[in-house]
Amino acid sequence: MKSLLFLAAAAAGALFLQDAGHNPAQMHVGPLPDGGFLLNSGWTIRPAGEQVPVDTFPMSTAVSNNGKYLLVLNGGYNPPSVSVIDIAQKREVGRTHLPDAWLGLAVSPKNDLVYVGGGSQATIYELSLNPDTGALARTRDFPAVADLHSKGVAFIGDVAVSADAHLLYAADLYNDSIAVVNLQSGRLIDHWKTGRRPYRIILSPDGRQMVVSSWADAAVYQHDANSGALLGKTRVAPHPTDMLWLNKAAPSEQGQPSYVARLFVAAANTNSVYALGVTSDGQLNMLESINVSLTPMHPLGMTPSAVAVDKRGTRLYVGCSDANAVAVADISGEHTRVMGFIPTGWYPTAVRVLADDQLIVLNGKGLGSRANPDGPVTTKPNKPLYEGGPVTSPGYVAHI
Questions:
Q1: Mean pLDDT value across the chain
Q2: Strands 219-224 and 209-214: what pairing?
């Protein structure tokens, strides 16, 4: 009780000092003198590295087979698009718009073809990538439902391509299923039931199993990659999002790894990434919970939603969306150790390590917020861009 009284007295004293004329300088949303930016949420961001503009809410990345281009899927308010970034020049060299897109972005391992999950269009888009210029051209559309005229609630997100480029897998979020397309014929050949709200799809390195994170079930599902048969379900934590398969086990106390690989799962409604051990027969077992919060008693709010690893398999990078940071963890030992944090822009959504150890971070909300001095004007409803509204509609937050 004494401590509570002391805190109250200290607060009262602080108020007294302010009244006495000791007010700190008032801060306003916008650029700060030291180079940071004060957001309207109260956070200050000072992102590390070089910043390359793309479009609204970049969500996911892929790299061309020649390593020259970084592809970025933009899925925000503006019409969805895929940006092509010249990695060496660190600039956008092209942007291709699509009818709709959400999260899914993959490059075929066999050729320069790119696949994009088509969101509410219930379609997967195929685009060809020119390896010399980075130009994208839309080639084929694959329906992810039997009949596009009666697609119902189908919504296509993440996509993955088999190692032999024969099959394409796509997450249908609202139908809790995986659509399977034969890339030779271009036909939808099956729909496999999986967990509720499937988010990320990854394939094991041997191509035998597919792993799916289930947002609504707080679990990871394993399926046979050829038949869709359910191989296992492993509970992790609320809202599992991004996953990473590392074909390298952590050393055990005896010096020998007990598992052949590890699966890292980011659970966005917690402060943790979960490491699962993969046995030789493909079973998953919980190894550890990696707390990426600033202190052990930190309340929920780090929102770990993206994971990446360096080429040596010793450093794990975790995009902490609501902390505007990337956590860096040492995963070379038996137990993971969080080493520190890299400041990012506003709301990081994806991380990737390139072959030369450059770290790529997508800043979902960019580098700052803006004011709306002209609105909103309630007597003049704003027309969205996709309905033909003006690019500079005053007062509408998505336009500023």
A1: 88
A2: antiparallel
